[in-house]
Amino acid sequence: MNSPAPALRSDNAAPPDLRQWLRQLAATGRLAVARSGVSLIDQLAAISKKLENDSTVVFPSPDGHAIAVVANLFIDRRSVADALGVPIGQLLSRLQGAVRSPLPWVEVTDAPVQQQVHREVDLLKLLPIPKHNEHDSGPYITAALLIARNPKTGIQNVSIHRCQISGPNRIGVLLLPRHTRHYFSMAEREGTPLEIALVIGVHPACILASQAIAALDQDEMHIAGALLGRPVDMVKCLSNEVRVPAHAEIVLEGRILPKVREPEGPFGEFPQYYGDRADREVIQIDVVTHRHNPIFHTIVGGGMEHLILGAVPREATLLEHLQRSFPSVRDVRLTRGGTCRYHLAVQTEKVSEGEPKNIIMGAFAGHYDVKQVVVVDTDVDIDDPNEIEWAVATRFQADRDLVVVAGAQGSKLDPSSDDGISAKMGLDATKPVVTGPLEFKRIHVKGIESVDLAAALQPDPQAALLRIVAD
Ligand code: MN
Questions:
Q1: Which pTM was predicted?
Q2: What CATH number has the domain spanning 326-428?
Q3: How many helices (H) and strands (E) does the chain have?
Q4: How many angstroms separate the alpha carbon of residue 353 from the centre of ligand 1?
Q5: Residue 449: helix, strand or coil by DSSP?
Q6: Distance in Å, CA 340 to ligand 1 centroid
Q7: Is 18-304 a CATH 3.40.50.720 domain?
Q8: Which long-range contacts (CB under 8 A, 24 or more apart) does 149-156 make?
Q9: Tens digit of each residue's pLDDT (9 = 90 or more) over 92-127
């Protein structure tokens, strides 16, 4: 059943949305498009994963489905900065600014996302939902913003959860102990369902905003507004009170059911292992709405897009958190080897002995996922794992510079933890504040920065060598 297309807004330029971003990628040679006939089971994820460091990829009609799929919206830190329209060096400060000065959304009534309405829901027929990692329990919706309302105040929360297709209108969902779970517990205590919407296909800035480590009852769509430089247009769902981005591609309106738990998992997760199968919360979908010719966004579990999305907004929050207590902290990275969640590198302009250990303790308190912290000086490039290891090799002594905390809260998805109870390790790999003139001075060849190899080298080395070694 289709509703009539709403009149076009004429008051201002088109709001930034996913399709506008994809057009921009295509125009600048950063978009790959797959041939038709790609299977939603395994094959789509395999091609996406193969391209995870290279380009965004669109699948026009996977398995002959009428709806296209896009993957790899983020391929590296630079692609995140590009999506926000900032130089890479300003990426974290831009995110910090958006959390500090959010821009509230505005409610509209004309919404492209409600151009087509389905009140009889069969998710696998309606949407091209892929299966990603080999031992996933089946197809998963992985890139949906789950928008929930505080049952008492109506304040909205936005987050991303893995969503298993459990039946034609049933979804098994993993709720970690954060804001969605808090709202759901409030509703469940009253014996009522929690109204939610799953929003698929939004501008990358909205996805990034959903991953900000904001306070409870800070609406992440306000952060998205600040990132986009204009309030997000939101529209009321047709079947409940949740407000959703009007220019999203697809919206699933539904409820998390009270006192219902059903098996969910396994699912390939960011630590590069499978999250287990267990009884978890269940969403019932009541209505699906979408734009004409919608685009379905998917994230390969544990792939680069998943990792980057975990890292960058967390880095912004951790940096802000650390700089509140330690103005000497310059930058942070959640490193790739640490699954972009568990291992944090901190760069500091060290001013006093001992402070790196305080920074380590502060970082552990910044997010429970942080398991290892390495503090380095400003001459160490924290984007380069070899540089970090070099600092540990030459500026760290385990009996003097190591901090270990036993039995703290960690990540339940870390298979080495005891159901989320985890040890923490901090390494102070900074050099002393006061050193001798050449002590801890990095070697350097004078003039290397200005060498012009084209001018310095002969064009034909073979001929040149023959002249040198002529007998
Ligand atoms: Mn939140």
A1: 0.92
A2: 3.40.1670.10
A3: 14, 23
A4: 37
A5: helix
A6: 20
A7: no
A8: 149/183, 149/194, 149/195, 149/196, 149/241, 149/242, 150/183, 150/186, 150/217, 151/183, 151/186, 151/187, 151/190, 151/192, 151/194, 152/186, 153/217, 154/241, 155/217, 155/219, 156/219, 156/221, 156/242, 156/243
A9: 999 999 999 999 999 999 999 999 999 999 999 999
